[in-house]
């Protein structure tokens, strides 16, 4: 797939967000009569974008030191550049994006709270790697939600990849066990595991995920394991708690930010990265199978501010 | 529920609790902390602003009453303000005097519309209605099947026509069908949609224009952030939403969206979803939610729940036992079973003043949580003699061994059970107030 193409789509998807943010930024800057008014407006903008009080306060502090008059005269490019640098700084990560190790089995497990978009993104990831000539199998470990298995089956058929069969109520860990063995037997190099949505506060359900992880480690200890947590871009500060709990339980390797096609600003990504240092790896922006993009801090912030 | 906001407020008030008088600085600090707490709770920025302004005025105007400490007065004012923002009274659903009553659920993707539809149908069935669920999500893969499966499991009828017909046509056909089957409440489950998706928003408008809807309910995720107000506004503009259902309140979300939506939209919150089970669904009580946010516990909701689970006689008996401290293992087991019907022990603890602190220290909250735990407890208790159940203090090492063999459990299970039992007993001793609301 053409990298340039991916980015232009990514930008297009973010267009609404970007326009709103940039417009507000310009307005914010040119209509403030003094520093305190400007900082008030900056706070409003950041909070309304779901950055959260902690990240917002840190950003505000950086602007506290600035001689406001000087900046005003030099127009808001300086200001924008400074904001950009701060945001990129928070978002930057040394962790690689989602990639496939050619020498061994790759297991991608999706976890997250109810309704955050796990099954949809499972389909999108399958679509991406299928097009890169991989041999995939999908594992419906959400045996709890009514018709979740059928939903994944429909997506698997659409993408033309296999899915392990199971039925509602089956033990998710044993479905995963079957999935790994089926993958081995059929020579698959990628296993995508869709799990049931669960609130991070439900201890027994979190234990169930830990059990699945243990099965993976036992049955495929040589695999490359990627545990991705889906975070809904419309979520507020509770997403930080979600990420924290899932990370403590499982060790999250990355976040997939979903539902970026609405008007939510997705600022929660910045808060999560700042608070927990969990890298954001994927961004989903639309309902089509190809609406999935690698997350890049610079481009994300650029698309947001340009 | 709302745990963090509650904690915050409690911390703030702890700071000022012991002061006889508050100076201007105290009030400023207090307002500052409340503001941060509300923003962290995802209350909309603009709502917080208004809230704090009106709070400041109130606090300054308020005459210092002799009977209350300044901290108590601020608690009172904050409580009043939150209640005011949430809406002042409970809002019931409109039921059509000449059936059927038609209710449409709408909302963003993944907010819990389908689950809510089934819960709502069950709510009406319990009230003696004959509900019919209508599956109109013709877009998301297996969405119709999801509703069908849930309908089958809960024995509720589901009307569907597959994915070929338009949503409006499905509803029209369902109307015809329901008149033959005498269904008096029709609940339309619609596809999740973005508020900026004009095509799908038109679909809702089309149903609204052609079908006489008694209620148009917006399903909102309680974990939603600042944008919730924006999307909800568009839904309101397009189809004039009549009420809101807040879902996923069983997590630890601070649920600030509850405060925002009522204020910004002027639309009442009617129900809340508090768990994955069909009965984890209840009417929204603004005045109670406020005291819950403040950490005062939702005593009223508890009374109601306890009342439906226990008969008056049972309550009297339990109360007598607690008062006389002869609450034994038989009662313990009975309570556990009852509590399971009411909700998780955790939920109940949240609602009782003082207990929400206590519960962090003891593992009693884990009791109802694990599947099978109750069975284990049942096995252990039934392996005890009558004497042991009534007077657990006689259970020594050799008795424990016998019970463990008899029940097929580990000694550690028995020890844990006894520990939990004593903890609960101790709690009841310390909290004689419990009886005040156990049968009012």
Uncertain segments of chain A: 1-7
β-strand percent of chain A reads 5-15%
Helix content of chain B: 55-70%
Number of helices of chain A: 13
Residues in β-strands, percent of chain B: 5-15%
For the largest beta-sheet of chain B, the strand count, sense and barrel status come to: 8 strands, mixed
- Cα end-to-end separation of chain A: 25 Å
* CATH first level of the domain at 106-252 in chain A: Alpha Beta
Number of domains of chain B: 3
Tell me the number of strands of chain B.
8
Overall average residue pLDDT of chain B: 81
Rounded radius of gyration of chain B (Å): 25 Å
How far from one another are the termini of chain B?
25 Å
Write the CATH homologous superfamily of the domain at 106-252 in chain A: P-loop containing nucleotide triphosphate hydrolases
- Any guess at the CATH architecture of the largest domain in chain B? 3-Layer(aba) Sandwich
Can you tell me the overall shape of chain B?
flat
Structural class of chain B: alpha/beta
Radius of gyration of chain A: 21 Å
Query: For the largest beta sheet of chain A, what order do the strands appear in spatially?
Result: 3-2-4-1-5-6-7-8
Number of strands of chain A: 8
Low-confidence stretches of chain B: 1-5, 295-300, 351-358, 432-440
Write up this protein.
The complex is a heterodimer of chains A (306) and B (440). Chain A has helices at residues 3-13, 15-30, 35-48, 52-64, 68-73, 76-91, 118-131, 148-159, 172-185, 203-219, 238-250, 268-276, 297-305, and strands at residues 106-111, 136-141, 162-163, 190-195, 224-232, 254-258, 280-284, 292-294. Chain A contains 13 helices and eight strands. Residues 1-7 of chain A have low confidence and may be disordered. Chain A has 306 residues and is an alpha/beta fold. The radius of gyration of chain A is 21 Å and the shape is elongated. In chain A, α2 packs antiparallel against α3. Chain A has a domain at 106-252: Rossmann fold (3-Layer(aba) Sandwich). By secondary structure, chain B is an alpha/beta fold. Chain B has three domains: 3-86, SRP54, nucleotide-binding domain (Four Helix Bundle (Hemerythrin (Met), subunit A)); 101-285, P-loop containing nucleotide triphosphate hydrolases (Rossmann fold, 3-Layer(aba) Sandwich); 301-438, 434 Repressor (Amino-terminal Domain) (Orthogonal Bundle). Chain B has helices spanning 3-17, 24-40, 45-61, 70-86, 113-126, 143-154, 167-181, 198-210, 228-239, 256-265, 286-293, 299-309, 312-323, 329-342, 345-351, 355-358, 373-382, 386-390, 397-407, 411-430, 434-438, and strands spanning 101-106, 131-135, 158-159, 185-189, 215-221, 243-247, 269-273, 281-283. Chain B starts with a helix and ends with a helix. The model of chain B is unreliable at 1-5, 295-300, 351-358 and 432-440 (pLDDT under 50).
